[in-house]
Amino acid sequence: MRVTALFFALYRDLAGAAELDVDLEPGADAADLVRSLRERGGQWLRLPPAPAIAVNEEYLPLSVRLNEGDVVALIPPLSGG
Amino acid sequence: MRVTALFFALYRDLAGAAELDVDLEPGADAADLVRSLRERGGQWLRLPPAPAIAVNEEYLPLSVRLNEGDVVALIPPLSGG
Amino acid sequence: MDYIAVQAAPIDAGMLLGQLATAADGAVLLFCGIVRETNDGRPVAGLEYEAYAPMAEAVLREIASEARSRWETGAMAVVHRTGALDIGETSVAIAVASPHREAAYAASRYIIEELKRRVPVWKHEHYLD
Amino acid sequence: MDYIAVQAAPIDAGMLLGQLATAADGAVLLFCGIVRETNDGRPVAGLEYEAYAPMAEAVLREIASEARSRWETGAMAVVHRTGALDIGETSVAIAVASPHREAAYAASRYIIEELKRRVPVWKHEHYLD
Q1: Could you tell me the pTM of the whole model?
Q2: Which residue, B7, D5, D21, D52, could crosslink D97 as a Cys pair with Cβ 3.0–4.6 Å?
Q3: d(CA C58, CA C2)
Q4: Tally of helices (H runs) and strands (E runs) in chain D
Q5: What are the tens digits of pLDDT across the range C43-87?
Q6: Which residues of C touch D87 (CB under 8 A)?
């Protein structure tokens, strides 16, 4: 299945892109997505192993099961206000 | 000696005036001023025996000694804001 | 440094706000007290504020100084209306600039509570019933 | 009922303020966060805010609802800037109308603290040194 990963702020800098489509095994969870990104090596290893994530604009734990077409945002430490 | 008493809000209503010059014995304190006003009887008896007062725009206790020319405001319960 | 006024003219809160902050400030907090349509459950037609104006300004200035001595604040503005006000009009505005929001909230709250406790102003309500 | 926006356009705080209160409200509190000339002691030239805008608006809407469920509030407005801001510009404005000032202060403070904790917005500072 395919999901879309979104990158912001320092995660976008290390990803070199604001978004990326990623193919995962059916039944994968958000932790699997992060693992598959880090396995690309290089800059990707600077991605924390357990970043905050939002699936379809809602904060969820890394254990959430993903579905085809989900939009998964990787959320760096916030600094709004 | 002569002092000026100022009346606001409900005290002005019962005094029927916004200010009044009052003659007091030398050495009188603010409590003496209030007593002399209440001794006028009638509406004046509605003045509380121990109202808050300000002398020359500063809150002071009723025991403060007054001087010739002092302006003594009798301060009803506040309701600003 | 502080702008203090007890005035019959309408309060222009947006103006207060715009003039307050300097480059050192990270927060501005503006409190506006507004004439409500009810008071203690009774319908209000309008009201009038009476002030012992020179003393009211002196006490407001004192309260602002106290706030500054307790919290790190920049410029402050406190304005109280007098005379007849309609429902919806601003009776009091308190604007506080500060490097930090915690100080702005604390100082603003201190000023409105002390104002109600100490500033010689009286409200006369006109009720509809 | 609530006005929520994450926008590149400058924030007109006076406008927010004027449109908020109804005849039931006795208080309006407006918080403005402002770009300071220093951050952690370093001189700032300016900064940029980046937002995950649709989610940021959804979370702000949720925070406003939470505030309303805890305190008696009227209308609320929360606006966050994105893009490049100069020193002195408003990065965030939170306006809360309420029948009572206690609720306005509590809700306003809740919203700014939760915003900083939960709303997906990132600040990029440009330093002079």
Answers
A1: 0.94
A2: D21
A3: 12
A4: 3, 8
A5: 988 899 999 999 999 999 999 999 999 999 999 999 999 999 999
A6: 23
